[in-house]
Design goal:
alpha/beta, 6-stranded mixed β-sheet, globular, disordered N terminus
Length: about 325
């Protein structure tokens, strides 16, 4: 199985390592609530970048951006931010994780999930945006050696990272005011969804499962998986983290599932499809015996947006809430 970096901020790099060695797991969706539309919503007024600017990169370097007419964001999350700031026409390439519609026709500059320095440089970019997890390091070194400014952005771990990531990109693009506007819009929308979460005497326990059936990769998320913040905002408990799983992701076992005892299971849509849907999910050892498996209570979110923690996170949260509570939502 190709290496997978669906989570653009780092927690799924643990999954990546486990994918290369093989593991075991679960995932599927029984709800009919719609997932977020696979489009971004740009700001109404397209800003004009005020450059040059010098900004701090998450790798400790200072980066001077003199032009931003040919931008290459090396993750779906960073691409989403650039497009939503209203600067999508300046993006000349995409990473494999940029799956939203406006970016679909851009040329790919990654092979599986590895950056191709040759492909990036052939597009003559004047700015490359990267995650701390972007690699391989040799390719990134080649890009820097060619004189292309590379801004590294701190990874997203939870809802608190939405604003800082947006602002980091906006500052580098010379549109700080647009960054503030988009941050406020994003945070206001997230707050509105949180306010609409129905009150329950007992918070549902939700386990985040990472699944790739074709490679027999079945993992349960623990602390640092990236899902905890979303689940808590949805009025739920991260069952894996609460059960004591210290690693980002751990191979699923019957014992781990029994200890987590989830009332519902959160999965990525393609992961669910890879195990044959709900019917295949409940055949994974231990799943059928959980409350979630017995009730077939599954929450499924599109892979490319679930853990982005960006401008569409309110849509992700809204979909989770709708799928978790159904008619109980306001």
């Amino acid at each position: 199985m190709p290496r997978l970096r669906t989570r653009l901020a780092g927690a799924l790099l643990t999954v990546l390592a486990l994918t290369l060695t093989g593991c075991g797991g679960t995932g599927s969706s029984a709800t009919t609530a719609s997932s977020p539309a696979n489009r971004v919503e740009p700001l109404t007024d397209t800003p004009e970048p005020q450059l040059p600017v010098t900004v701090s990169s998450a790798d400790g370097k200072k980066v001077t951006v003199r032009e931003a007419r040919r931008i290459v964001p090396l993750s779906g999350s960073l691409s989403e931010i650039v497009f939503t700031l209203g600067l999508g026409e300046r993006v000349v390439a995409r990473d494999i994780t940029a799956t939203f519609q406006q970016a679909a026709k851009l040329p790919l500059v990654t092979r599986n999930h590895d950056v191709s320095a040759e492909s990036v440089l052939s597009l003559k970019p004047d700015l490359v945006l990267a995650e701390k997890t972007t690699g391989p390091s040799e390719a990134m070194g080649q890009i820097r050696a060619a004189g292309v400014p590379v801004l590294v952005v701190d990874p997203a771990q939870g809802l608190a990272d939405v604003g800082p990531r947006i602002q980091a990109v906006a500052d580098a693009l010379g549109v700080p005011a647009a960054g503030k506007e988009l941050t406020k819009r994003s945070e206001d929308r997230i707050a509105a969804v949180r306010k609409a979460v129905p009150a329950h005497k007992e918070r549902p326990r939700v386990a985040f499962l990472y699944l790739r059936g074709s490679a027999s990769v079945y993992l349960i998320g623990g602390k640092g998986s990236g899902a905890t913040s979303l689940l808590e905002a949805a009025g739920a408990v991260d069952a894996g983290a609460e059960s004591g799983l210290e690693q980002d992701f751990t191979a699923i076992t019957t014992e781990a599932l029994a200890k987590a005892a989830p009332d519902a299971i959160l999965v990525m849509t393609k992961g669910l499809e890879s195990v044959g849907g709900i019917d295949g999910l409940v055949k994974i050892p231990g799943v059928a015996q959980t409350p979630a498996g017995m009730d077939r209570r599954i929450v499924s979110i599109e892979d490319g947006v679930l853990l982005n923690y960006g401008p569409r996170t309110d849509q992700v949260l809204k979909s989770i809430v709708a799928q978790l509570y159904g008619d109980d939502t306001k």
